[in-house]
Design brief:
Blueprint: H1 2-21, E1 26-37, E2 42-52, E3 59-73, E4 76-88, E5 99-115, E6 118-132, E7 137-152, E8 157-168, E9 174-188, E10 191-201, E11 206-216, H2 221-226
Parallel strand pairs: 1-11
Antiparallel strand pairs: 1-2, 2-3, 3-4, 4-5, 5-6, 6-7, 7-8, 8-9, 9-10, 10-11
Length: about 230
């Protein structure tokens, strides 16, 4: 009986720990991405993400990003950008001053290639992260690599997959890994929607997230010329 009682205590302790960080919940990410063409070689990146521990509730993170893209050629481009991120690291619905505020500068390099019907994209990212924990501040650096594969099914529907690894440039090397799969719909020539699933793996925890994303890439050159 003592052994059984001890096992039950361990199980309840583990369950309580998992519930505290929300690992057992199916969360959701709602995302917008835009590439706004302003000239032959330059465009402006815009992005907003709202992330939740549960379905559209229990706030986890707000991410706002913008940047200037330089298009070297149709298959290569670079980005210099800035991000503002607010993160609630606790699973509590209404925590008391647990937010982390982050200002982030990032540099990216994109390479694209095609093999048969498969479209590949390689994204390399460096990030300089300026973190405000409230009682202290810190500066961290990390590198990211994402391999993305897109497969057109018809002119309207497509499949999208990617895997992205995060490498810390200080402290523990491994940061996280994101594995993603989605069904996409081309709504217009410059707008698409994706409904997908993300497996977000950290060293101590794994999170499952449903994602709804909209991508809108308007060509603003005609509008700018009129002005």
């Amino acid at each position: 009986m003592r052994k059984i009682f001890g096992i039950l205590i361990l199980i309840s302790t583990f369950t309580g720990t998992a519930q505290e960080n929300g690992e057992h919940k199916l969360g959701s990410w709602y995302m917008y991405f835009g590439t706004n063409k302003v000239s032959e070689k330059f465009s402006i990146h815009t992005e907003a993400q709202f992330r939740y521990y549960e379905q559209a509730k229990n706030f986890n993170q707000l991410l706002l990003r913008t940047g200037l893209n330089y298009h070297i050629n149709p298959n290569a481009s670079t980005t210099l950008g800035y991000g503002y991120i607010v993160t609630d690291g606790s699973f509590e619905e209404f925590p008391n001053e647990t937010h982390l505020y982050e200002h982030r500068i990032f540099e990216r390099f994109f390479l694209k290639n095609k093999v048969g019907q498969f479209n590949f994209e390689h994204r390399y990212t460096l990030e300089q992260r300026f973190l405000d924990f409230g009682d202290r501040k810190d500066t961290q650096h990390r590198a990211r690599y994402r391999l993305q594969l897109t497969l057109p099914l018809t002119n309207t529907f497509f499949l999208n997959f990617y895997d992205e690894v995060f490498i810390n440039l200080q402290g523990e090397t491994f940061g996280q890994n994101r594995l993603y799969a989605a069904l996409g719909v081309n709504v217009t020539e410059n707008m698409s929607l994706q409904l997908g699933y993300l497996k977000n793996h950290f060293s101590p925890a794994h999170y499952d997230r449903l994602q709804i994303g909209i991508t809108y890439n308007p060509d603003l050159r005609g509008m700018l010329k009129k002005k």
